């Protein structure tokens, strides 16, 4: 197993998580009051450089639809969005809305978990042994009132910068374009993908990296199945040092859980999350639709673009829906 090759005992996640957390910790790097972690790496100059990457003006949404046909199955009360109309055209035609001089309108409401479709994980989403980002006590960060310290609203104006697509599905499985469930993407895989795609896919400080595995392509073709929470390709636990060394600002994948599932330890649940969110301060995106972007990048042999992916400014939230836009 990859974990064994890296010197970790797959039967001892506690030791591996602790050792890796120490190796990649960013606690204190941006001060004791920091609330946004690696998003500090996207500064004004980085955004200006990213804006200069726009060549054709083509705009590609990387979001799944927010509707009742989504992937969620109710795990931990995560449901698909429920969209309800409050006022309709038939109400307007019937003249029952109470407006003067013939004006009518439509209005609606949506109810959904904040992480039911394309989304960002905030820094208050995952803890390690009761510790939150930057070494704070989890209970001092997130209470029944929400995340009062690292709430997603702190990132509302920050996630605009250079985006880089790493199409691991196409690179490692050129015929199918899809990695099989359970495939653990290694640091060597990431490096070989960058080398194959060329210099526009070089990953560096402040970049927003999107990793396509092809699992979403398969789910759309074959049905959702166990896409939400089941087996999936994803990043290996052993990539944590790679992510840290490159000083990326954020990373997203086309899978439900970002990291490989089943996880590489026995037993385990999302050990890479347990390291990179509370210790590295890394913002993670999940369930991003990268297929159209992958086609465009392959056609042009350019894998860098301006990424605009602001979370909703939901006070105290530990995650947020997002409609990421890649501008080519």
Automatic annotation (TrEMBL):
Signal peptide: none annotated. Keywords: Hydrolase. This is Cyclase family protein. GO terms for molecular function: arylformamidase activity. It comes from Demequina lignilytica. InterPro entries: KFase/CYL, KFase_sf. It is an enzyme of class 3 (hydrolase). It comes from the Bacteria. Transmembrane segments: none annotated. SUPFAM superfamilies: Putative cyclase. GO terms for biological process: L-tryptophan catabolic process to kynurenine. The keyword Cell inner membrane does not apply. Its EC number is 3.5.-.-.
């Amino acid at each position: 197993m990859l974990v064994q090759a890296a010197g970790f005992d797959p039967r001892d996640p506690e030791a591996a998580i602790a050792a890796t957390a120490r190796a990649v910790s960013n606690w204190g790097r941006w001060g004791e009051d920091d609330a946004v972690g690696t998003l500090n790496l996207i500064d004004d100059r980085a955004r200006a450089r990213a804006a200069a990457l726009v060549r054709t003006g083509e705009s590609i949404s990387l979001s799944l639809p927010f509707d009742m046909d989504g992937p969620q199955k109710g795990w931990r009360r995560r449901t698909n969005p429920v969209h309800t109309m409050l006022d309709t055209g038939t109400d307007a035609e019937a003249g029952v809305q109470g407006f003067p001089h013939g004006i009518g309108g439509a209005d609606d409401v949506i109810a959904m978990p904040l992480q039911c479709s394309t989304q960002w994980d905030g820094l208050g989403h995952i803890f390690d042994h009761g510790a939150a980002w930057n070494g704070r006590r989890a209970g001092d960060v997130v209470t029944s009132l929400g995340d009062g310290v690292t709430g997603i609203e702190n990132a509302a104006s920050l996630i605009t910068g250079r985006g880089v697509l790493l199409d691991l599905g196409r690179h490692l499985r050129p015929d199918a374009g899809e990695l099989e469930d359970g495939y653990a993407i290694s640091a060597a895989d990431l490096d070989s993908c960058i080398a194959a795609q060329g210099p526009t896919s070089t990953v560096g400080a402040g970049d927003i990296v999107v990793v396509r595995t092809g699992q979403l392509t398969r789910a759309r073709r074959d049905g959702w199945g166990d896409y939400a929470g089941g087996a999936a390709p994803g990043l290996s636990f052993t990539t944590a040092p790679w992510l840290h060394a490159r000083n990326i600002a954020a990373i997203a994948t086309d899978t439900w859980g970002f990291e490989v599932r089943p996880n590489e330890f026995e037993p385990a649940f999302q050990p890479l999350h347990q390291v990179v969110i509370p210790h590295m301060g890394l913002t993670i995106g999940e369930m991003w639709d990268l297929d159209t972007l992958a086609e465009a990048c392959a056609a042009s042999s350019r894998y860098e673009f301006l990424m605009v992916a602001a979370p909703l400014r939901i006070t105290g939230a530990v995650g947020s829906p997002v409609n990421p836009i890649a501008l080519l």
